[in-house]
Amino acid sequence: MEIKVVRNVLDVNKTLAGRNRDRFSQEKVFVLNLMSSPGSGKTTLLEKTLVQLAPDLKCAVIVGDVCTSNDADRLAVSGAPVVQVNTDQFGGDCHLAAHVIAAAADDIDLEDIDLLIVENIGNLVCPAEFDIGEDARAVVLSVTEGEDKPAKYPVMFRVCDAAILNKTDLLPYLDYDVGAAVGYMGQVHPEMPVFQLSAKTGEGIDPWIGWLKEQVTRKRSRG
Ligand SMILES: Nc1nc2c(ncn2[C@@H]2O[C@H](COP(=O)(O)OP(=O)(O)O)[C@@H](O)[C@H]2O)c(=O)[nH]1
Ligand SMILES: [Mg+2]
């Protein structure tokens, strides 16, 4: 019985995600869903990413947290439009659902932007299950979280089109096996690119920026 209810929730979400996808396509906006566990560095990566993309792409961000507007305040420094969603109004949901994205997108002038980035709620499980109408998904894993997280939380890594291995500036101080982490990701999702970088120092960020620009360009060329 419980499984049936969950299935219904996901079916409704899929329908609403389809509506979002049509709307974003009509407005010619590329949508990236950025996910990770709390604290892996999504906001820090976006702070850097928005600055790097600014000359080429007009960006906006929807950022989700259970409470606070801390991340929206950090990201607004870039000058990009930012909408903060707090899920404590919806019972503290651990993910952003399609209808929440639809409402948040009403506060953004979609005609005026090329790329909408959604920083999802920090969680390696639930956000992977909820389509929000995005074009691409990326997951951030930081080197302080353990090498085997892709094996323990395979759904997240399976549904993503790219992964970021963040906080590489900390590697000299840790007993962390980068090869093992990348290996686990490869087992779960063999074709997925993995970008090793430090969002803090910016080292290694260029291939990530290049990948993101390429995704937007590819969608534009498809019309
Ligand atoms: N050393 C280091 N710290 C980082 C890096 N990226 C993020 N952090 C720190 O990790 C903490 C969580 O980062 P935040 O961007 O808020 O993560 P989020 O919860 O995924 O959005 C903050 O204290 C950041 O300064 C990084 O590349 N290197
Ligand atoms: Mg954040």
Short description:
The protein contains eight helices and seven strands; from the N terminus they run αβαβαβαββααβαβα. It is an alpha/beta fold and 223 residues long. The longest helix is centred in the first third of the chain and has 25 residues, at 2-26.
Structural summary, described in words:
The chain is an alpha/beta fold. The protein has a single domain (2-216), classed as Rossmann fold (3-Layer(aba) Sandwich). 40% of the residues lie in helices and 17% in strands. The protein is built from eight helices and seven strands, in the order H-E-H-E-H-E-H-E-E-H-H-E-H-E-H. It has helices at residues 2-26, 42-53, 70-76, 98-105, 149-152, 154-159, 178-188, 206-221; strands spanning 30-36, 59-65, 82-86, 115-119, 136-142, 162-166, 194-196. Strands 3-2-4-1-5-6-7 form a seven-stranded parallel beta sheet, with helices on both faces. Strand 2 (59-65), helix 3 (70-76) and strand 3 (82-86) form a beta-alpha-beta unit. The longest helix has 25 residues, at 2-26. The radius of gyration is 17 Å and the shape is globular. 41% of the residues are buried. Bound molecules: guanosine-5'-diphosphate and magnesium ion.
